[in-house]
Amino acid sequence: MFRKPKIVVIGGGTGLPVILRGLRDQNADVTAVVTVADDGGSSGILRNYINVVPPGDIRNVLVALSELPDLYLDIFQYRFKTSDQFLAGHAIGNLIISALSEMKGGIFDAVQELAEMMQIRGHVFPVANEPLTLNAEFMDGSRLSGESEITKAHKQIKRVWVTPSNDEDGHEAKPVPEVLEAIKNADQIVLGPGSLFTSILPNLMIHDVAKAVCESKAEVIYICNIMTQKGETDNFTDADHVRVLNQHIGHHFIDTVLVNIQPVPDNYIDFQEWNEISQPVGHDFQGLRAQGCRVISSNFLRLRDNGAFHDRELVVSELMNRLHQVHD
């Protein structure tokens, strides 16, 4: 009897939904594990006012895996105009997730309820059932807390870690058990694409999550970013991205890296519109192989709206190829 391959995608930010939308239409059992350490924009305001897990990343992932008609999803994604004062900048979906979190007494049960309402194909698991705070130490020895503060500092990051936001007793951040179960049973674990320090690592900095990923028999695939990110990965090569991941976990745990080698045309990027990015990620294939990685270099590029993104179909096709090669 055919068993759908189990794919766990770990991350946050805008890159994750792109890949999930492609995986949704494959014959696979997809689980998205989403960071809860975002504190910017509408998510941050709601988090501060009503002490809920920031809903923005979760909202985008729910939409990516939903089979509802586009009109319903457009309403869920609608963001109030800045002239609306009281509701300025808030997405309707963020308000719904926050309300359900209060009703259900936590983000995890709220998201499961919403997943059913939104006809999700797959599973959406917030990595923890409480808001987490991202902390960073920079190369100059200084420290900051809060994702938005860390990114705004535009300083080279040495390391990051997470702590429970309501941490009065110094307890360790704990994942929801379903996340660990999904990782344990996965056939493939995908990291990214997304901000290295603020979308991917916050999930892996929960000790039990990192341990589960390292102990899993699944192939761990890292989708390397196409562009470097200001204040996070300036001047990074693909090998630098993997090195940071491995250093945070404590050993070489990335099995395979997907690297885009299609050049981004000069003068195509609108750096005012896409003000978080700075330049294409450099290549260091020797550095990747020295870390025990299988390197899959190909054209994964999609140019649109004067920005450089991953091409959903090309990336998902490669992920499915890897599944077949590993399990055939």
UniProtKB/TrEMBL annotation:
Keywords for the protein's UniProt record, in alphabetical order: Cytoplasm
Molecular-function annotations in GO: LPPG:FO 2-phospho-L-lactate transferase activity
Organism domain of life: Bacteria
InterPro entries for this protein: CofD, CofD-like_dom_sf, Gluconeogen_factor
KW Lipid biosynthesis (keyword) present: no
Location in the cell: Cytoplasm
Main location: cytoplasm
One GO-annotated biological process of the protein: regulation of cell shape
Keyword Cytoplasm in record: yes
Gene Ontology CC terms, in alphabetical order: cytoplasm
Function: Required for morphogenesis under gluconeogenic growth conditions.
Family: Belongs to the gluconeogenesis factor family.
NCBIfam families: CofD_related
Name of this chain's protein: Putative gluconeogenesis factor
Organism: Limosilactobacillus frumenti DSM 13145
